[in-house]
Amino acid sequence: MKFSVSFLLSTPLLFLNLFAERPNPKSLEFTKWTPNFLVPDPVAISFDNQGRAYVTQTQRRKANDLDIRQNRDWIPDDLSFKTPNGKRAFYHKAFTSQNSDANKRRVKDFNKDGKHDLADLRFLSERIHLIEDTDSDGLADKTSIYAEGFTDEIGGIAAGVLHYDGDVYTTIVPDVWKLRDTNDDGKADQRQSIAYGFGVHLAYAGHDMHGLTVGPDGRIYWTIGDKGVGASSKEGRHFQYPNQGAVLRCDPDGSNFEVYARGLRNVQEIAFDQYGNMFGIDNDSDRPGEKERFVYIVQHMDAGWRSNWQYRNGTFNPWMDENLSIPWHKGQPAYITPPISLYNNGPAGLAFNPGTALGEEW
To answer: Which domain holds residue 232?
Structure first.
């Protein structure tokens, strides 16, 4: 018996069974759901109750969303930032018209005005595409722009999207946005930032906010890489973790925001099992011999990672030299929650299959 799985994103899919023999991949049939068009540079996808897909597109990655590896002379400045507004103030000083020549290697002259300045960082927009199967033949035949105009000079990539209860949420550093189409024309006409304060550092490209999902408690969960957190809740609580990745959550209206877990490097997606336990796969720190980590994520945990360690080069590095990156062992610092196991390279997504919809072997 074959089961069909349709997907839009062009990254390879890896199915894992951690407890038994590997299932036969031939029992799954892969088809292109969008046979007549492509979604450019897709990052994240979510479906609504009508079977319509919301797909984020990035245009800003490494173009307007800068990578510290191409701007290494800024590392001391970057590490000094405690909130996204610190980075914003730095950009306003660095990307002036007077510094245009120095900034040629940092940003292209996108608006063709002969200057490499702040306006060029505001030129490209992230987008959310709405993909539909209008004739119910099982293949998508219509694409349109659901939302765009995400051009903040310190803005990151649209790395997360979630349709929930009539609203569309998207994570684009430094904001979590809540969108709604009130007149059913396929375009968001309401837009609200329900949380702000993410992406403190330039850091590594791709260490953005991702993994939007609804938890078993009905709250909105998402992750951020080690670009860091410098945020405050609507209730006045302050969360300062500028050198750490984290799992975050809030109520659907943005209230009761909090950092659920921290000390991670770049967990891109989380998954809940049937008991409400949370798991993720964290990226390694690019050190020789290090591997990604399968992590059990619990509230208030500190997984141990700090982004400033990655700039130490050959000097003492607590992450590696104190064996913080590996599963529990005798003598490991008690303040961290270690990974369950080590993992394959380059994890980009995670889902939990709670039942038998894909057949017993899965």
So the answer is: 3-343
